[in-house]
Amino acid sequence: MRITAAIFAILLCAGIAAALWLPGREGVLGSFSTSLQGRTRGQHINAIKSARALDGVVIESGQTFSFNKTVGSWSPDRGYVLAPVSYDGQMVVDWGGGVCQTSSTLYNALLIAGLEIVQRNRHNWAPKYVPAGRDAAVAQRNIDLQARNPYPWPVRIRVQADDNRIGFQIIGRAHGPMARIASIPQGQVPPSEIVRIDSRLAPGGRRIITRGRPGVSVAVYRTYLHGPKSNQRELVSRDSYPAMNRIIAVKE
User: Fold this and answer.
1) How many domains does the chain have?
2) What is the pTM of this model?
């Protein structure tokens, strides 16, 4: 029986594709890391601690992972400390400040690994440690990061953390990256300048309270590179972040 070159090529490609999904061929489905440079000591401590709580976590086939349930409360009795955190559009000091960098870093690794995102919430303002539209805010009650494992085998979270960066690898029985992520800017709004009177300043004095930040709109897309959805492109999210006003104090 003769096999034509075209048929042989098809069989070869099918064999390679099948090999990627054979049990036992474990590889990195997706990975992502963010820098801890410029973060406060408290944010650094909380980010590292929450990241290490995820190391080795297994998400079974069809199971939905919850960041909040897995990490648990970021309270002082569990070793978390006070640090700046975004709350209702304002920066305040609270327990667990910095944990959102962990959830945002993991979110990007999950996207690249091809997992199904069940729940994700943006911040009031786009944080600087990930591209706009690719953050994932978490809070102790109903603001969670959840992802479902769509593969017919379990996946495992591996943490890579040091003094400078935190990162995640999603391990499974295939070789990634499983998807490519693209952030497409949709528009930008410049910040307004607000002047406040501060009688404590010297005559002619001027102090910058908040430098401000432009508001942005962004669409995030995911293109699958391997697996059942190979070559498919999907809209992950559309987000609009308001501008953060520039606030200046002056002497009356």
Assistant:
1) 1
2) 0.83
